[in-house]
Specification:
Layout (H helix, E strand, L loop, with lengths): L5 H8 L28 H10 L4 E2 L1 H6 L2 H5 L3 H6 L2 E2 L3 E3 L7 E2 L2 H14 L6 E5 L5 H14 L13 H11 L8 H4 L4 E5 L3 H4 L1 H13 L2 E5 L5 H4 E2 L5 H5 L4 E2 L3 E3 L6 H16 L8 H7 E2 L1 H10 L2 H8 L3 H12 L4 E5 L1 H4 L4 H14 L9 E4 L6 H6 L8 H11 L11 H9 L5 E5 L3 H4 L3 H9 L3 E6 L4 H4 L4 E6 L8 E2 L2 E2 L2 E4 L4 E5 L13 H13 L6 H6 L1 H11 L6 H4 L6 E2 L16 E2 L17 E6 L4 E2 L2 E2 L15 E4 L1 H6 L7 E6 L8 E9 L6 E5 L24 E7 L1
Parallel strand pairs: 1-2, 5-14, 6-7, 6-12, 7-10, 11-22, 12-13, 14-15, 15-16, 23-29, 26-28
Antiparallel strand pairs: 3-4, 3-16, 8-9, 17-18, 19-20, 20-21, 23-30, 24-25, 27-28, 27-30
Helix pairs in contact: 6-27, 7-27, 7-29, 8-20, 14-17, 14-18, 14-20, 23-25
The structure holds ligand MGD (2 copies) and molybdenum atom.
Pfam family, one: Molydop_binding
Organism: Neptunomonas concharum
Family: Belongs to the prokaryotic molybdopterin-containing oxidoreductase family.
């Protein structure tokens, strides 16, 4: 990708992830405790340059291009058009967006909100880039207005981690901090492609590997970045063109096979413990855990044949993993979408925790559970109340602080929101960031759902699909990006974010805003709230004039933020207390809970000509933002409609490398879901499993196909058939 404003980008980069600078909008990996001057990565550079583009989508652009025309553009072309510059309104009369003033835009939203039959007809979506300040104000506004409808990108992302961890150990967040990676004896990386999606994590793994820690990768694909890595910040290594072997062991299971792997490791450990009492941590289990006997029984009852069949690995493979695990005193498990986007994600997360608990690997230095988050502040958004299932204690705290009567009934998650729009039960959609139309499943139905709304509103930096799939009326509200100076009535503001290690720190943009008419996300939310509810009960204007006041509010409502404004001034910020990391279990039994779920049945149901599709990211994209058409590590250039397939499957289906195929979903709901023009690429991937990029494949994912207990679309396991074109 070209950086269209190179000088600005370089200046900006030097401030990435540095105290006093801004938090890289790329990913949620933590900052190195001893970071040198430079702490960014190739893909962070892309994210920053993408935001700092010199191109503009202004009123002339919208006058030139009708909505009908823009709907024909692909995602890459839409976003590449540049930064949005002023509020735009589509009033449903003709085919164009037209400029409006901010005050008009706010009053359109307020009058629509005031006309709804019930506050639950409104949906308040959040993508995980919003700051803590904007997100807190947004949820406060939604609840003061009267609904808990806060669908968010987490519902499609790490929801299973939150649900599974909460049930098992009483906190929905990871239990490790960056320093633990310096102490671990072994690190197991499940279902994650850090080379592309969390490149700074590779530097952490590389350091651990050099120090002698064992790195074990478990991934359906042989991801290059996970195998070998040369540090772009180490000139010596670059000069001699050497690279460090990252993963000493690499296993390629079938899609969805990780629960079986974890079960197999547990089975080996329990077998070993019959003759070697140190194979499991008996003292930890006795003191801290409940449900061990039931778990032991379910592990015993799981036959090896099922474990090897579901995982696609041999007993020897699993034994190798079990040995590394048992021979290491301190072990970290990390994971991402390869674990969370399956039907049985919650059960899998809990099974990973079971294995950690067996050897006391939670709540000691160098060990723990690490779900590696996606969006740079998705974890912070949840912490400050973006949650369709808020706790009653949180709602009570809001009621007390603001003299409100917030709704106590749970709201709708992402998939439920889509259904409500389709059923006419939700009529107004506001998106604080993100690209709802492209990121969600079952594309045809999403388009229908959004277009049935009375009003769709998007607070965004760049033009995307969601802006052109409009409701009867639509607004685009352009906002400042993370890298830009945020000036409010009280002066220049900083915002705060929380990374995957629960570190909260401040972020301050350096660049001039892309347009003088942009407003900050916080100011936009406050503007909507003021127009809809007035300033009497909550003074939205005063809060957005000075973000330190919002932080004071957060401090008074949410535990763990004591001294918020002072503590973000210090170095790299502060760590939010994590009870599980201290071996205090906030579960009903006050113990860490073993789960005893059976292995999933859905994996046994596959028939011969049906393949399982996972949808994933290329190296040149950030979710639905497509930076370019290459996927360097996987050897793809200039195209995105590719289908990675095993050689045997290609042959069995009478196909050849390079053939074009149509992919069709197998379902029994009578809906045809197809995408066409996909080029077959012979690839090292287990038989029966195939892979293609998101969001091109989202039309294939049935809305009803969601993970048990958490509603995440099963983006990594869709049953499909192929037809040669
Ligand atoms: N540059 C860049 N950075 C990003 C993003 C981006 O799009 N671009 N997105 C951000 C977001 S929101 C997120 S959530 C994260 C996503 O980070 P990842 O989870 O790394 O993203 P995916 O591309 O979905 O990759 C899933 C990985 O899991 C493997 N996998 C899939 N299914 C299975 C399985 O059943 N078992 C095992 N063991 N492996 C499996 C795939 O082969 C692939 O390597 O990255 C964040 N960072
Ligand atoms: N098939 C399939 N679908 C998936 C996934 C998958 O693996 N496979 N992954 C899922 C996951 S993990 C996630 S997190 C979701 C992501 O879903 P979303 O978070 O909804 O989507 P993004 O593509 O990250 O959103 C990109 C848009 O955000 C806006 N934006 C960028 N920066 C800012 C900012 O600073 N402020 C504001 N207000 N707007 C900004 C820009 O306009 C840009 O077009 O997608 C999910 N969908
Ligand atoms: Mo994500």
């Amino acid at each position: 990708m070209q950086s269209e404003d190179a000088v600005k980008s370089v200046k900006t980069l030097l401030k990435a992830n540095q105290p006093g600078g801004f938090d890289c909008p790329g990913c949620a990996w933590g900052d190195e405790p001893d970071a040198k001057k430079i702490d960014f990565c190739e893909n962070g550079v892309k994210a920053i340059a993408w935001e700092a583009t010199a191109k503009r989508v202004d009123r002339a652009f919208f006058a030139r291009h009708s909505l009908d025309e823009l709907r024909l553009w692909d995602d890459h072309s839409l976003e590449k058009s540049g930064r949005l510059t002023e509020p735009m309104l589509y009033d449903g009369v003709d085919n164009y967006y037209r400029p409006v003033s901010w005050e008009q835009a706010f009053s359109v939203i307020a009058s629509h909100l005031n006309q709804l039959n019930h506050p639950d007809e409104a949906l308040f979506y959040t993508s995980g880039r919003a700051s803590n300040e904007a997100a807190y104000l947004y949820q406060l506004f939604g609840r003061a207005y009267g609904t808990n409808n806060f669908p968010d990108c987490s519902n499609m992302c790490h929801e299973a981690s939150g649900v599974g961890l909460t049930r098992s150990i009483g906190t929905g967040k990871g239990t490790v901090i960056m320093e633990d990676f310096e102490k671990a004896d072994a690190i197991f990386v499940f279902g994650q492609n850090p080379g592309t999606n969390h490149p700074r994590m590779l530097a952490t793994l590389r350091k651990a590997s050099i120090r002698g820690a064992k790195i074990v990768a478990i991934n359906t694909l042989k991801e290059r970045g996970l195998q070998r890595f040369s540090d772009p910040q180490s000139p010596k290594e670059m000069l001699i063109a050497s690279s460090t072997t990252i993963s000493q062991q690499y296993f390629t299971p079938k899609l969805g096979g990780d629960m079986a792997i974890a079960r197999g490791i547990a089975k080996r450990l329990l077998e070993r413990s019959e003759t070697d009492s140190s194979a499991i941590d008996q003292a930890f289990i006795a003191e801290h855990c409940q449900g061990f006997e039931a778990y032991q029984a379910v592990v015993k009852a799981t036959p090896w044949e099922v474990i090897t069949k579901q995982s696609g690995l041999s007993i020897e493979d699993i034994e190798t993993m079990a040995n590394i695990y048992a021979n290491s005193k301190k072990v970290i498990f990390t994971w991402a979408m390869g674990i969370t986007q399956h039907r049985h994600s919650v059960a899998t997360v809990r099974e990973l925790v079971n294995v950690l608990l067996l050897r006391g690997n939670i709540g000691k230095p160098g060990a723990g559970a690490c779900p590696v988050r996606g969006h740079s502040n998705v974890q912070g958004n949840r912490t400050v109340g973006i949650n369709e299932h808020p706790s009653q204690a949180f709602l009570a705290a809001l009621d007390q602080r603001y003299d409100l009567t917030t709704p106590k009934k749970a709201g709708m998650n992402t998939v439920e929101s889509i259904r409500a729009m389709l059923d006419g039960k939700a009529k107004l959609f506001i998106g604080l960031g993100g690209n709802f139309a492209a990121a969600t499943p079952d594309t045809d139905r999403i388009y229908k759902a959004l277009s049935q709304c009375d009003l769709t509103v998007h607070i965004s930096t760049k033009l995307n699909r969601s802006h052109v799939i409009t409701g009867k009326h639509a607004l685009i509200l352009p906002c400042l990006g993370r890298t830009e100076v945020d000036h409010q009535a009280s002066g220049e503001q900083c915002i705060t974010v929380e990374d995957s290690m629960s570190m909260v720190h401040s972020s301050r943009g350096q660049n001039d805003p892309a347009s003088p008419l942009l407003r900050s996300e916080t100011a936009i939310v406050a503007g909507i709230a003021q127009a809809a509810l007035g300033n009497e009960q909550i003074n939205w204007k005063a809060l957005s004039d000075d973000y330190s006041r919002i932080r004071d509010e957060i401090e008074s409502v949410i535990p763990g933020f004591k001294g918020y404004n002072q503590r973000i001034e210090q170095g790299r910020g502060f760590h939010l207390q994590n009870l599980a990391a201290e071996r205090t279990w906030d579960t009903p039994s006050r113990k860490a809970c073993f789960s005893d779920d059976p292995l999933p049945q859905c994996l046994d149901e596959v028939s011969e000509d049906v393949l399982t599709l996972q949808t994933l990211r290329s190296h040149d994209q950030y979710n639905t933002s497509i930076y370019g058409m290459d996927d360097r590590y996987r050897g793809i250039s200039g195209e995105r409609r590719v289908l990675f397939m095993n050689e045997a499957d290609i042959e069995n289906l009478g196909l050849s490398d390079g053939d074009k195929v149509t992919i069709s979903t197998v379902s029994n709901d009578g809906i045809n879901r197809n995408v066409s023009g996909f080029k077959v690429v012979n690839y090292q991937i287990p038989k029966g499993c195939i892979a293609a990029y998101y969001p091109e494949t989202n039309p294939l994912v049935p809305l009803e196909s969601v993970a048990d207990d958490c509603g995440t679309p099963t983006y990594k396991s869709i049953s499909v058939r192929l037809t040669k074109e």
